Amino acid sequence: CARVRAATCMAMAMEISKELVSSVVAIARLHKDMEFMSWILGVESNEGQLRATKLYAPKQASDKSEVWETADSCLGVLQALDLRGEKVIGWVHSHPTFDAFLSSVDQHQQFLVQSLESRAIAVVTDQKESVASGC
Are 118 and 11 in contact (CB under 8 A)? Predict the structure, then answer.
């Protein structure tokens, strides 16, 4: 029941499984009072379609309004992905105390992620709304 919104700056085809969305909702419930973030990992088909395959939750610290990952965690995931043919195709994070939207900080993060993959998406969950509705 967690409200989830996705944003990207261009129209495109991306395959995201119900299981991956369920994982986002489950992580949001576990971190209901603190922000969290995960990278959305995926592969590109021969036809150029992106397919989200899994979430990767890096080492991170957070509070009710911010989340940040450790520098060594970021470098490690990018190196590991290159070896497996996967890449970052988006990211997900939560807003535990306010609505699901891309804040100015989130928009800056999305710009950086899109410098790695121009079709990357940003997903924001809203635990506040979910708790209020009894989910």
Answer: no
pLDDT in tens, 69-117: 766 666 566 666 666 778 888 988 888 878 888 888 889 888 988 888 8
Helix (H) or strand (E) holding 129: helix 127-132
pLDDT of residue 100: 82
Q: How many residues does the chain have?
A: 135
Do residues 105 and 91 lie in contact, with contact meaning Cβ atoms separated by under 8 Å? no
Query: Smallest Cα–Cα separation from 106: which of 116, 96, 94?
Result: 94
Q: Provide the pairing of β-strand 60-62 with 121-126.
A: unpaired
